[in-house]
Amino acid sequence: MNKWNAEGYDSHFKSDCHIGVKILIGVIALLLLAACGGVTPVPTPAPTSAPTSTAAPTATPRPEWTTPHPILSDVRVRRAIAYCTNKDELIQSVYPLLTPEERESLVMDSFIPKGHWAYAGEENIESYTFDPSKGKSLLQETKWKVSIPNPIRENANGQHLSLGLQVSSAKFRQTWAKVWIEQMKFCGIDITLKPSLGWMDFSPRAMFYRDVDMSAMAWITQSDPGGKFLYACDEIPRPGNDWSGLNYMGWCNPLASENIIRAEQTLLRQEKIDAYRIFQQEFTKDMVSLPLFNRIEIYAMNAELQGVELRTGDWDHYYTWNIANWEIPGRDLITLGFTQEPASLFTIIEDAYVANLAVSLVEGVRTISPSYELLPVMQKQIPTLENGVAVNAVVIVQEGDIVYDSVSDLAVLEQKTIVIDSEGKLVQYTGQSISMNQLTVKYEFVDGLKWSDGVPVSKADFELYYKIACDEESGATSFIICDSIQTIEFTDKGYTITWVPGMLHSYYFLAPYGFFPAHRVLSDGRLLADLPAKEWATTPEVTRNPIGAGPYVLKEWIPGDRMVFEANPYYYGGTPKTKTIIIKFLDPAIAEASLIVGDIDFLDSTTLVGVSEALRNAEEAGLVKIVVVPSSTWEHIDMNLYIK
Fold first, then answer.
1. Distance of CA 26 to CAs 162, 440, 514, 643, Å?
2. Integer CA distances (angstroms), 587 to 38, 272, 303, in order
3. Is 174 strand, coil or helix?
4. Which of 97, 134, 229, 253 could form a disulfide with 611 if both were Cys (CB 3.0 to 4.6 A apart)?
5. Residue 271's CB: how many other CB atoms inside 10 A?
6. Is the CB of residue 105 less than 8 Å from the CB of residue 311?
7. DSSP states of 250-294
8. Gap between the Cα atoms of 469 and 150, Å rounded
9. So what's the pLDDT on residue 315?
10. Residue 370, phi then psi, degrees to nearest 5
11. pLDDT the model gives residue 222
């Protein structure tokens, strides 16, 4: 699933913005207001779903924008721009201390990163390797010719080959954009930088009214790429749809549109791969959006630290997923450096990244997604249609039934409701019975789960989590998952959900709920199972001292200083290799120095936004190890194909 971000992603998950597994099941079609430092609203596409209306006021009639762009409507110009782009040089401008190999790992040539299961492969797409001579040759074929001594090309009327590039005020993007402008000038293309102060300058005129030649933005790729919102023909903002949709390029390639929709509607992996391959072929052939490079996640650690596994595409960023295997030979203590402190460990309402990381030590991690491939950790397996643990049965729906309609909104089936039937066709309800697909998925957890007090995890614990997650008084802000469930049945191993008919979400195989210790006795003598939902957010045993079935037990939390975790003797995975883990809260200004001198052993990408000279020197001295991982956030330039 792709998200886009007009302002940039300078924070690298620095502050309270964490996209967790919990929000991925269900329909997500909304604008997230700036929750991260420097991060502006992020429309979040979801499979087969239409966007929440983001249309600007239409009191003043506006043109249809069907006139081909005088420059960018020529595919040869767009391809020339791609050939004239030196992506390695752009990367070096913002990450000057990366090695050539590290820079190469960041280069993008499709809307899906290399290494992703849905990436079509270089042999199946146009990759546009940097070749300015080829770019100049393509331009020479067009009406834009070299005019000596003017370095900028002109047409027969003396008009310059000039385009505007809208760029946010983010320093990161401003830096590479200025380098790119010089690259274009070498090929005879004049680019004018049109800076923006933020989201309001992208909306409504420039973006929703498509009143821009080109725009530089960042998107986020997740395990299932999605893309319908960004590329389908019916997502082009125009007066006829009240200027809604996110296809700001105005690009309509029927074959590409058909396949990006097909990729999102099917739940079968191979069908997705086939559809995404065809889409990428058309996407790169038409060159309407120029992929540039992944941003990076930086991790630095004690040179002797062993067992850490960091891989690209882990969009939940739970690098602590296997912390039970971390060790420094001869030591029984590892210290992680955090530059933010969790406000609470009740993650149903506190979804800050640092809170989820801390909780993962206590509760464990259900799944991970290295290289965008979902793998089970505490889930026993990934239930799929292919392995038979999930079943997509055909059912008959009738008037009054709750269903997902054709745009993935929950709806009561009534006259004129449009749904996708079991054959994948759009059907309008007129009183007749309709056959639809209905998912039933069995979510089981690994054997031997015990709470850190030795009590086995039970059916009551799964029931309690579901109860609290779906109770409005708990403080939870989203009930999309709860509302999408038709029935749920619990066991001591997990639960089985029958989803509402028509639910086609690509992340159906992720267990949406965990477990809470129903048996736990609170300080006032009550059982946690009896605690009213409205009291959970203020109960210390929930917010400050939860127990779990993960590798560690939270023993002490000194506000403003540290959290101390000790090995869980009942951990299902065996005895953790390191007895004590400390999360130390640090001033960002001293974080790197603390690592270099050995006061802490690990810093993550919430603190490290690049490789500093001090870190490189420490690496050369054998004091630290640096790991550069391509993140799921990537830079690109979109081109508008039509004007008024």
1. 44, 14, 17, 36
2. 19, 45, 22
3. helix
4. 97
5. 13
6. no
7. ----HHHHHHHHHHHH---HHHHHHHHHHHHHHHHHHT-EEEEEE
8. 65
9. 53
10. -65, 135
11. 84
pLDDT of residue 207: 60
Helix (H) or strand (E) holding 634: strand 624-639
- For 266, half-sphere exposure in the C-beta direction (CA atoms, 13 angstrom radius) is 15
Polymer length of the chain: 644
600 near 592, Cβ under 8 Å?
no
| pLDDT for res 36 | 29
- Name the 3-class secondary structure at 381: coil
Give phi and psi for 94, each to the nearest 5: -105, -20
| Distance (Å, whole) CA 634 – CA 333 | 36
Give the pLDDT score at 30: 27
| Rounded Cα distance, 245 and 53, in Å | 8
> Structural domain boundaries of the chain?
3-295+633-643, 297-381+449-456+506-631
CA torsion through residues 79, 81, 84, 86, sign = negative
Is the torsion defined by CA of 545, 547, 552, 555 positive or negative? Answer: positive
Cα(422)–Cα(248) distance, rounded to whole angstroms?
32
Q: CA–CA separation, 288 vs 218, rounded Å?
A: 15
CA proximity to 547, closest of 510, 579, 515: 515
Q: Which residue in 485, 443, 446, 445 sits closest to 467, CA to CA?
A: 485
pLDDT of residue 371: 81
**Which of these, 599, 551, 542, lies nearest to 579 by C-alpha position?**
551
Which 3 state secondary structure label does DSSP give 395? strand
Structure confidence at residue 244 (pLDDT): 81
* C-alpha–C-alpha distance, residues 26 and 394, integer Å: 20
Tokens read off for 320? 């602590």
CATH (residue range 297-381+449-456+506-631)? 3.40.190.10
CB-count burial class (<10 Å; 0-12, 13-18, 19+) for 388: exposed
User: Positive or negative CA dihedral for 267, 273, 277, 278?
Assistant: negative
Token code pair at residue 417: 């409701």
Q: What crossing angle do the helices spanning 87-94 and 171-186 adopt, rounded to 10°? A: 150
- Determine contact, residues 58/242, Cβ cutoff 8 Å: yes
Nearest to 604 by CA among 308, 222, 171: 308
Among 489, 449, 514, 392, CA closest to 22 = 514
Which residues fall within 8 angstroms of residue 286, CB to CB, at 6 or more apart? 75, 78, 251, 253, 256
Tell me the whole-structure pTM to 2 decimals: 0.85
CB-CB contact of 530 with 520 (8 Å): no
Q: Is the N-terminal amide bond of 68 cis, ω within 30° of 0?
A: no
The CATH architecture to which 3-295+633-643 belongs is: Roll (3.10)
Enumerate residues 6+ apart whose C-beta is below 8 A from 270: none
Buried b / exposed e along 541-555 (16+ C-beta atoms within 10 A): bbbebbbbbbbbbbe
Report d(CA 69, CA 72) in Å as an integer.
5
Low-confidence ranges of the chain (pLDDT < 50): 1-61, 197, 199-204
CA dihedral for 85, 89, 93, 99, sign (positive or negative): positive
List, in sequence order, the alpha helices (H) in 538-606. 540-543, 588-596
Nearest to 443 by CA among 366, 370, 500: 366
